[in-house]
């Protein structure tokens, strides 16, 4: 298993998950609700930045690896799922949104694994719609975690809710895109 700076950043994202969850369960005597929201949002934003940075560094430093290509999306899915479950517990996101996003991640991960076993993994390689989905999630979640008003006028809860609905729509769209790409192999009609 290789270890380099990009992989270290990915592991850092995985390590941030328990911190993200735990901050919302510390006593209010230690951190106020606002401070918890702010710290949680900052942890998530920093983790999201490492998602971009680890890929950039891997390409720039020519340190791309099969393990890094495996771990990076796993780290992304874990931190998004953890954040959604925290938000669900705090009643800041609807159950259907969490189910759509987490369910899609499980479905497409299983589909990619199966397609790789068939030797057709390239047919479900990452596409722009999947990247848009991820971007929408990574923007929406910090607003929902912050759950406050910024600059005296920006309602983070409302903006985050609209953005997570957009992310849920893009999530479904990307799932159907990947399923359509895999359909020939799913029904046994390989071109």
Question: How would you sum up this structure in a few lines?
Answer:
This protein has 191 residues and is an all-alpha fold. It has helices at 5-23, 33-60, 66-89, 95-117, 128-146, 156-186; strands at 149-150, 154-155. Strands 1-2 form a two-stranded antiparallel sheet.
Structural commentary:
By secondary structure, the chain is an all-alpha fold. Helix content is 75%, strand content 2%. The chain contains six helices and two strands, in the order H-H-H-H-H-E-E-H. The chain has helices at 5-23, 33-60, 66-89, 95-117, 128-146, 156-186, and strands at residues 149-150, 154-155. Strands 1-2 form a two-stranded antiparallel ribbon. A hairpin with a 3-residue loop joins strand 1 and strand 2. Helix 2 (33-60) runs antiparallel to helix 5 (128-146), helix 3 (66-89) runs antiparallel to helix 4 and helix 4 (95-117) packs parallel to helix 6 (156-186). The longest helix has 31 residues, at 156-186. The chain starts with a helix and ends in a 5-residue tail after the last helix. The model has no long low-confidence stretch (mean pLDDT 88).
């Amino acid at each position: 298993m290789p270890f380099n700076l990009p992989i270290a950043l990915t592991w850092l994202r995985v390590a941030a998950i328990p911190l993200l969850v735990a901050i919302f369960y510390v006593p209010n005597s230690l951190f106020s609700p606002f401070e918890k929201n702010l710290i949680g949002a900052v942890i998530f934003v920093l983790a999201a930045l490492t998602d971009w940075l680890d890929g950039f560094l891997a390409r720039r430093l020519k340190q791309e690896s099969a393990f890094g290509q495996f771990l990076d999306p796993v780290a992304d899915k874990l931190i998004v799922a953890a954040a959604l479950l925290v938000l669900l517990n705090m009643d800041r996101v609807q159950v259907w949104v969490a189910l759509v996003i987490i369910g899609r991640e499980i479905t497409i991960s299983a589909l990619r694994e199966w397609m790789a076993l068939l030797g057709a993994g390239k047919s479900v390689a990452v596409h722009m719609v999947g990247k848009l989905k991820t971007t929408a999630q990574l923007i929406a979640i910090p607003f929902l975690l912050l759950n406050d008003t910024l600059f005296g006028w920006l309602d983070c809860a409302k903006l985050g809710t609209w953005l997570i609905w957009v992310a849920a729509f893009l999530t479904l769209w990307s799932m159907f895109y990947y399923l359509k790409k895999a359909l020939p192999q799913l029904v046994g009609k390989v071109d």
